[in-house]
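Methods: example folding runs. The two proteins below were folded one after another, and each record is reproduced exactly as written to the output file, sequence line first and structure-token line second.
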Amino acid sequence: HASYGDIPDDHGRTFATTLTRAVTAGKPFVQIATWNDWGEGTSIEPSIEFGTRDLEVIQKVRRQHIDPAFPHTPEALALPLKLLHLHRDNAADPATLNRIALLLAHGDIVAATQLITSLSTTPPRAASR
């Protein structure tokens, strides 16, 4: 059927521009009404094609226009994927991996990074039967 039109990605500039306009419009909040809407081309979820680009834009816009002290960095966005790999590699006991997940959920990026780093430098555990 007929399309409603197309807004090009423009190497992420479209999202960055519209988010900046929304954040600087003087409204009390901004809702980003997409996450993984792959069919409409409006996903901001990490992907093979774009990595964490759009989540990094959100961090940058927040830091520039809302909270200059916003502590989270693009490197922190890679931690959930690293945790997934640790799970898949059976690199630690489930309690430790769950602890990392809770640290991430509570925003304790430093402690989560330290634990992930310590597990990444040790050989994987043998799978239990």
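Second run, written to the same file directly after the first:
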Amino acid sequence: MSESRGEAPIESLLAIMARLRSHTEGCPWDVAQTFATIAPYTVEEAYEVADAIERGDLADLKGELGDLLFQVIFHARMAEEAGVFDFDDVVRAIVDKMMRRHPHIFGGEPGNWEEIKARERDGKPSSGLLDDIPAAMPALTRATKLSKRAAGVGFVWPTISAVMEKLAEEVAELEVEIAANDRDRAADELGDMLFVCANIGRHLNIDPEAALAAANAKFTRRFRYIENALAQQGRNPRQASLAEMEALWVEAKTATMRS
């Protein structure tokens, strides 16, 4: 199928998706998919968009945004086949939401973003304060959102000092379980400690997910320095002692701070 002359690109993409899902002339793999099987690909494509942005590769970003849009089209097509909604309904829903949440731009009842979102939550069948924070969200990001939502109703450590005290408490509890060699309870305490770390980020207005991503990138740069230094000697990390690698790590810290 070729794109019809004068046909809008989005219409071409919708037609391609319909063809791929056709039980008579489509792709067997696409036909076999469900919301659940496609969901991991949707998440993966979102991460690839974020990666292109992080790398500053705008040419790659164009392609990755297309891949992410295709995921939206895929889910909308499956919903249309089930008679639930279609792509136009998806577009209408986001248009309505954006206009509703920006009354100062489009007119309507005054209110800030969080107040409007709270009213929307109150109108849903499930009205628990935390119910609409997706469970599949990256855990550190979800911890931040959970604590922020709870803080909005006053359930919060009042100061950063109080949070730091709680962190020290969780570290001590983790050490007890490590000493007891209780892996399950250590995992529980480690989770508590990470949740407190997310609260530290919220208090400092620092995104802990972004902070950890930066730490990951820093670790990668420094470890790569170790690998390169050893490669110049005809060796790799498996052939080096811990002391050698630690010495190169110290060098890497200075070298990467200059770069």
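Comment on the second run: The radius of gyration is 25 Å.
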